[in-house]
């Protein structure tokens, strides 16, 4: 059984998506990983060592979602489409990650379809 994330309506130029189009169903393992991720890091003090398990949980969660092809098209566009990246100087978020060396995903594109 999956647990959908709730999201409000997204409007950016002529690109629209309903909340139901953005839901990502999580497996039980993915729910556990989400519980290990600090989504408000400014509210908590972290040292370098405390970030490692958070980063590991994020990486495992993302790999699982990609492997299951669980990320809806509008969410993929947010990451892959330069039009969604205001201030990206014509680059998508994915292209920025590639150019600054922080992305371990294949250079040919995300492993999602």
Task: Describe it.
With 113 residues, this protein is mainly alpha-helical. The protein has a domain at 28-70. It contains five helices and four strands. The protein has helices at 19-22, 28-35, 48-67, 73-80, 93-100, and strands spanning 3-4, 10-12, 15-17, 25-26. The strands form two sheets. A two-stranded antiparallel sheet has the order 1-4.
Global mean pLDDT: 77
Give the distance, in angstroms, between the N- and C-terminal Cα atoms. 23 Å
Q: What is the assembly state of the chains in this entry?
A: single chain
Rg over CA atoms? 15 Å
Characteristic key phrases:
113 residues; mainly alpha; two-stranded antiparallel ribbon; 9% strand
Q: What is the secondary structure topology, with strand pairs?
A:
Blueprint: E1 3-4, E2 10-12, E3 15-17, H1 19-22, E4 25-26, H2 28-35, H3 48-67, H4 73-80, H5 93-100
Antiparallel strand pairs: 1-4, 2-3
Brief overview, please?
42% of the residues lie in helices and 9% in strands. It has helices at 19-22, 28-35, 48-67, 73-80, 93-100, and strands at residues 3-4, 10-12, 15-17, 25-26.
């Amino acid at each position: 059984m999956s647990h959908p994330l709730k999201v409000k309506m997204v409007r950016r130029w002529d690109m629209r998506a309903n909340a139901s189009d953005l839901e990502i169903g999580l497996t039980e393992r993915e729910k556990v990983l989400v519980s290990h991720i600090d989504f408000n890091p400014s509210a908590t003090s972290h040292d370098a060592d405390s970030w490692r398990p958070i980063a590991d949980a994020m990486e495992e969660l993302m790999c699982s979602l990609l492997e299951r092809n669980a990320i809806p098209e509008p969410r993929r566009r947010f990451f892959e489409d330069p039009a969604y990246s205001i201030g990206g100087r014509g680059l998508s978020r994915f292209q920025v990650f590639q150019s600054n060396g922080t992305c371990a995903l294949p250079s040919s594109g995300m492993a999602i379809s």
